[in-house]
Design a protein that fits this description.
The protein has 472 residues and is an all-alpha fold. The protein has helices spanning 23-47, 54-64, 74-97, 100-103, 110-128, 132-138, 146-159, 166-184, 210-246, 265-307, 329-345, 353-377, 384-401, 410-440, 444-471; strands spanning 191-195, 203-207. α5 (110-128) packs across α12 (353-377), α6 packs across α14 (410-440) and α14 packs across α15 (444-471). The termini are far apart.
Amino acid sequence: MSSTPETFRPSVPADEIQPELTFRAVLLGALLGVVFGAASTYLALRVGLTTSASVPIAVLSIWAIRKKQQQRAILEHNIVQTTGSAGESVAAAVVFTVPALIFLGYPLQVGITALIALTGGVLGVLMMVPLRRYLIVKEHGVLRYPEGKACAEILQAGERGGTTATKVFVGLGIGAAFKAFQSVFGGIKGTLSRAIPGYPGSEVACDFAPELLGVGYIIGYRTSLIMVSGSLLSALILTPLVFTFGQAIPGTFGTATVPIREMDALAIWKNYVRHIGAGAVAMGGIFALVRALPSIWSALSSSAKGLLGGGRGAGGAQAVERTDRDTPVMVLGLGAIGLVVMVWLVPAFQVDLLGAVLILVFGFLFAVVSSRVTGEVGSTSNPLSGMTIAVLMGTCGLFVASGMGDAKYSVLALMIGAIVCIAVSNAGTCSQDLKTGFLVGATPRRQQIGFIIGVLVSTVVIGGTLFLLDKT
């Protein structure tokens, strides 16, 4: 059973008013979001994943914004980490999708990259808001949201004067020294791999990087073991199975360009095993959506009644506590539809009406998936690339069924996949931030505004960083 324990009390009671969405909090969050967004862009290109930026941003916020005598600043610190985390979230999704245009022969442009990031980023926040009451409140105690909980504990410790930014700066120094020793002086290899003798098709590999060590520490043993178990399932069972049974298949199979018997372990993973994972993610998303539908409908209907004036007075819209105030449902609906219509009408996107509808449908479906998976394994372990592959497979399947199988539709499919991927990534990260806000007693509506501001600021910087890295 999923319910909010009656004994739970946020750090800041609902009837307490203190500074929250202030100019200095938004400005500091935006600046840190730019820094961590650029760093996440490099990290995603390097190792294929990113880490949640909320925890270090929260620590830096406590260090930068000093509370005055007898004044609490925990809600301001929460706005800083909420605004700043948007940069990392957008960066991950942009890197996983936009570079595909380069491989198709299209030049990378800062303007269109920023526009894609902006559209998907805002859309993800708008789609997450109706899920908050179900995933964050009703499922409290069931969904862990590890980064969100860790961030809340840091903010609470900072309120008591029990944390400093010293460890963050020490970590930066150690990471920089290790990377210099590894990359500049060649002191240690970045990746080690080895095929297992007598076990055809199997291969184990390991990356040595300080960022990966930090990822493992943040997500904890349980989630790390889940990730390692999935890797071992892929490397020691699925890949050898495909290799063994593929020996009897003459010629190529599926979308591969070479026969399976000529592939190494990495090629088998890219052509077959990765798609198995994408299908598992998609099916899990369908079950999660079906399970969440009743609560989603309840949240939407109650928000609509409050907006239209139903139940005003005692127990009505005026009685809604500060810690339960979301962005109005009318704003969410009009905003989401407006963004999709913009994607359809703006020529730079090259998206037709069918593509715009697919963005709306796939975006909401996988926003549910991302938010729930993030609650179980954290933002770092969120299978964003698998969900993106599932979106691309579904989109291309519909295109082929509609007679749109020409190569010219590949850009359309990638545009759909990129916008949905960014929306899904932001939905997951926004869930973590809203969990932190739930634990500390923040105002959800103000957090949602802060996150959107973070998206607006970080998009141009991330597009420019990706462009410079491509040129370099």
